[in-house]
């Protein structure tokens, strides 16, 4: 039974010429699990918000959205749940139990009913021990799980999710998606999920909808969408198993998860001789570049009697090096970046920039001397009404004349692909568009040491590839890059070295092949497929090359 039908839907925002959506048509069936994917800024968020009337953006709308008769007319807020990519923007109360009860109270339910429903919901989602906790004290994964629980507790007929795993570490993201699939299976709630991180979610979906520039370009089963779009740029972000299928020119059906990809690989190497192993990258002889940023014996805690977040932590970031740090939500990665950038001060240990203690840089000299930090929340980067004004402002702050700053800002926006966004308000952009603009603003300061906190959040695969190429270019110029990320595939692609932050210290720091093949959970999907078959491989093209050899 069709729960919702969209026909010839087009939408254009005010003061813009190009439509955000153009002639979109599809239907959602009761109890289905639907995945929506597409490039950054292609209209995914706009489409989701149009499906929930009270969140629909203002603009010119044509076409129709028809809801099944069991919905109200219009649908009541509790009938369509919504989970966004940033739980901090969605959570509205101070306690876990109150957040769960909030929607039920707005529905006018009796207190006894609310007590029972909040109790059983907390138990179902594993939040019983956090029932009385402050929402501020929750980890990022717990906050996102609470947002999901608060949406499900009102028994919606349709659940919309806009990149809910974008701020979650790989293990927490997998657990969140498993919970989401369980909600879909156990309660028959129709799920419509927009995501850029497709590796784990592709095989969960019954149907995949792919968008490009406001248009729907595919709508079918996951395997068939892979087959239809194998020559599209969008295919770059599809699961590793699908990309291996294409690289090996294997017959249909296309595999969409590690298990299916490993089966394809086993069949491909069955007739080959030798172990198919890859040699490890050769070490380059000669002296190492000098340190650009170093830390020795860092200890940090937020309160005098609180637990230590950093424990005798040391690291060295060299000129021309890209160093990536992975780890779970709440383990202290952002705290480390803030400590290295002088935002927070350790109670013991030293940080040195260009062989000078960062405490010796006074009145902003630290940032004028070549260090820049991209924060986890890119909204905090912007202070003006338009992106153009923000880019010009950062150049003017460095002493550049107004006309020259305007020209350089426009040229940089064109180079980095954000020129169409220059006259938009940063707060009106999608998460990925805002992230791109924040990176451009950071790079306009021409930093020699670049600290990045989740730089790929909200970005599609092609945008990540372009960012990776840009960072490699900057490293080639001698810049030093320290990247904190949950994006394992991106870290493997860009890094000279990787490490895992756990219990306040860095573990297993090393070259990406050694690091990722030594891990079980914090590793690439390609490495999991290759395990035992093509030892040492962490990328799809490495597996394909070994099979073809």
Give short descriptive properties of this protein:
6-stranded mixed beta sheet, Rossmann fold, 549 residues, alpha/beta, single chain, globular
Report on the architecture of this protein.
The strands form four sheets. A six-stranded mixed sheet has the order 5-6-7-3-8-9, with helices on both faces. Strands 15-16-17-12-18-19 form a six-stranded mixed sheet, sandwiched between helices. The chain has a four-stranded antiparallel sheet with strand order 11-10-13-14, with helices on one face. The chain is globular, with a radius of gyration of 24 Å. About 2% of the residues have low confidence. The chain is α/β, with parallel strands linked by helices. It folds into three domains: 232 residues, Rossmann fold (3-Layer(aba) Sandwich), CATH 3.40.50.300; 67 residues, no CATH class; 235 residues, Rossmann fold (3-Layer(aba) Sandwich). It has 19 helices and 19 strands. Helix 3 runs parallel beside helix 5, helix 5 packs parallel to helix 6 and helix 12 crosses helix 13.
CATH superfamily of the largest domain: P-loop containing nucleotide triphosphate hydrolases
3D shape: globular
Residue ranges: pLDDT <50 for 5 or more in a row? 273-285
CATH architecture level-2 label of the largest domain? 3-Layer(aba) Sandwich
Instruction: Report the major sheet.
Output: 6 strands, mixed
Q: Supply the helix-strand structural class.
A: alpha/beta
Instruction: Tell me the number of helical segments per DSSP (H or I, 4 or more residues long).
Output: 19
CATH topology term of the largest domain: Rossmann fold
- How helix-rich are the residues, as a percent range? 25-40%
Mean pLDDT: 91
- Strand residues, percent: 15-25%
Termini separation comes to 50 Å
Going across the biggest sheet, name each strand in turn. Answer: 5-6-7-3-8-9
- Overall CATH class of the largest domain: Alpha Beta
């Amino acid at each position: 039974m069709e729960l919702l039908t969209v026909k010839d839907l087009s939408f254009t925002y005010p003061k813009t010429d190009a439509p955000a959506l153009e002639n979109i048509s599809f239907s959602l069936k009761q109890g289905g699990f639907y995945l929506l994917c597409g490039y950054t800024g292609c209209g995914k968020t706009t489409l989701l918000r149009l499906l929930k009337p009270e969140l629909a953006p203002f603009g010119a709308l044509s076409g129709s959205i028809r809801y099944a008769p069991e919905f109200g007319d219009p649908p009541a807020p509790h009938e369509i749940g919504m989970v966004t990519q940033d739980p901090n923007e969605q959570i509205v109360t101070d306690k876990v139990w109150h957040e769960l009860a909030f929607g039920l109270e707005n529905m006018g339910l009796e207190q006894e009913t609310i007590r029972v429903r909040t109790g059983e919901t907390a138990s179902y989602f594993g939040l019983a021990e956090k029932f009385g906790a402050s929402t501020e004290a929750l980890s990022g994964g717990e906050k996102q799980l609470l947002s999901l629980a608060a949406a499900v507790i009102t028994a919606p007929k349709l659940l919309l999710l806009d990149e809910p795993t974008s701020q979650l570490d790989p293990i927490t993201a997998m657990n969140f998606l498993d919970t989401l699939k369980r909600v879909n299976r156990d309660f028959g709630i129709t799920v419509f999920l927009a995501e850029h991180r497709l590796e784990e979610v592709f095989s969960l979906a019954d149907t995949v909808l792919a968008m490009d520039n406001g248009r729907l370009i595919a709508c079918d089963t996951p395997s068939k969408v892979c087959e239809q779009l194998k020559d599209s740029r969008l295919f770059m972000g599809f699961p590793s198993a699908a990309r291996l299928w294409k690289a090996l020119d294997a017959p249909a059906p296309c595999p969409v998860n590690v298990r299916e990809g490993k089966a394809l690989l086993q069949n491909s190497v069955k007739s080959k001789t030798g172990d198919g192993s890859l040699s490890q990258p050769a070490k380059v002889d000669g002296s190492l570049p000098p340190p650009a940023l170093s830390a020795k014996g860092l200890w940090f805690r937020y309160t005098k009697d609180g637990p230590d977040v950093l424990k005798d932590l040391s690291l060295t970031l060299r000129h021309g090096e890209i160093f990536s740090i992975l780890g779970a939500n709440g383990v202290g990665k952002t705290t480390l970046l803030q400590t290295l950038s002088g935002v927070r001060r350790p109670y013991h240990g030293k940080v040195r920039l260009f062989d000078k203690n960062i405490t010796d840089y006074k009145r902003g000299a630290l940032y004028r001397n070549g260090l820049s930090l991209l924060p986890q929340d890119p909204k905090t980067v912007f202070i003006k009404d338009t992106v153009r004004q923000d880019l010009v402002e950062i150049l003017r702050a460095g002493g550049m004349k107004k006309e020259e700053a305007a020209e350089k800002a426009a040229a940089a926006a064109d180079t980095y692909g954000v020129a169409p966004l220059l006259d938009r308000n940063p707060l009106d952009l999608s998460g990925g568009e805002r992230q791109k603009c924040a990176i451009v603003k950071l790079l306009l300061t021409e930093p020699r040491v670049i600290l990045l906190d989740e730089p790929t959040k909200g970005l599609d695969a092609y945008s990540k590839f372009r960012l990776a190429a840009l960072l490699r270019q900057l490293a080639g110029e001698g810049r030093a890059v320290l990247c904190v990320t949950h994006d394992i595939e991106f870290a493997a692609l860009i890094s000279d070295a990787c490490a895992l932050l756990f219990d306040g210290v860095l573990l297993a720091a090393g070259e990406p092949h050694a690091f990722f093949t030594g891990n079980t959970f914090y590793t690439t999907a390609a490495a999991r497929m290759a395990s035992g078959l093509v030892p040492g491989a962490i990328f799809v093209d490495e597996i394909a090359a070994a099979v073809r050899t």
